[in-house]
Description:
By secondary structure, this protein is an alpha+beta fold. It has a single domain (2-174), classed as 2-Layer Sandwich (Alpha-D-Glucose-1,6-Bisphosphate, Chain A, domain 4), CATH 3.30.530.20. The protein has five helices and seven strands. It has helices at residues 2-21, 38-45, 56-60, 146-149, 155-174; strands at residues 25-34, 65-69, 78-82, 90-99, 103-112, 116-128, 131-141. It has a seven-stranded antiparallel β-sheet. A hairpin with an 8-residue loop joins strand 2 (65-69) and strand 3. It is elongated.
Amino acid sequence: MYIAIYIIAAIVVLFILLAAIAPKKYESSRSIVINRPIGEVFQYLKYVKNQDYWSPWKERDPNMKQTFTGQDGTVGFISAWESDHKQVGSGEQEIVNIVENEKIETELRFLKPWKSVSQGYIKVADEGNNKTKVVWGFYGDAKLPMSIFMLFMNMDKAVGKDFEEGLAKLKTILEK
């Protein structure tokens, strides 16, 4: 009987300790320079439907079910997806802010494989000589138990490679 109580107490203490040291926030982003003027790059990026051509997640499941609400390229537009592919899952992305030739901000609401809400962004900056720097990323609050899971998983490394792959495809498309 006492052994069971000690084991349960040890598990509770371990959980509390892990929760205390777990990261409370996460962020991942990558950037690339595209040899096109900022206006052209921004006009392409603000349309979420264009992500179908360069997103690594669309490539992983080209048959994912997608639905759209609102006018693409404007605040309030929602792109929703459903996929059985474990790296794609289900969720929706809503444009929440657009600053012309500067940034597009979205709210990412993931439903599967786990529920979470993150803030996504694509920022552009004029690099001169008709070159544009594009930064693609997301960030959010790590809530329990996800924060404990993040002690053992490097979110930046896991998602960063997807951002790199997508940005490379974006560069190829826009520089044609």
